[in-house]
Amino acid sequence: MKNKNSSGWSKIARRIRVPLGFAFAILYVWLAKPNRISIVVGCIFIAAGLLVRAFASGHVRKNEQLAVTGPYAYTRNPLYLGSIIIAIGFGVASLNAWIAAIIVVLFLAIYLPVIRNEEEFLRAKFPEFEDYAAKVPRLIPRITSLTGAGTFSGELYLKHREYNALIGALVLLAILIAKLFWLRAAH
Known about the structure:
The protein has helices spanning 4-31, 36-57, 78-94, 97-125, 129-135, 154-159, 163-186.
């Protein structure tokens, strides 16, 4: 049975996730206590997450057809998986347990309801979604591909403006590195 409050919250969560992300970035910069190693290790996760998001954006034709190739052959939500990996990277880079806790809370409170809401939309729009959902996990990727690689489209990558994730990550990393130097100079 569909929960009306859950549906209502997922719509609110969908609207506030981007502004909340910017507000969290400010809090993040304030609370982060990075060191060189934490930034390097964090960058490994951040780069991996950006690659997952980039690859996924080149396979999705939003509202036109159900994406089942590329990373969508392993997980139904590779864009969110990429975002989670990026968030883990920034959590590691920050060296702050409060940031890690906030990331978990934001994921549970914002992204899970949004994912559920988007899947309800896909289920209604694409009759084949039910079969796809039965074979491909929601978030944690399966080991083997359901359908195959498919063809990556740079045009779709640009259309979806996925490069904004890269720009945002680079800006936040630059601020984090500047804070690292500022913290060193202060000691």
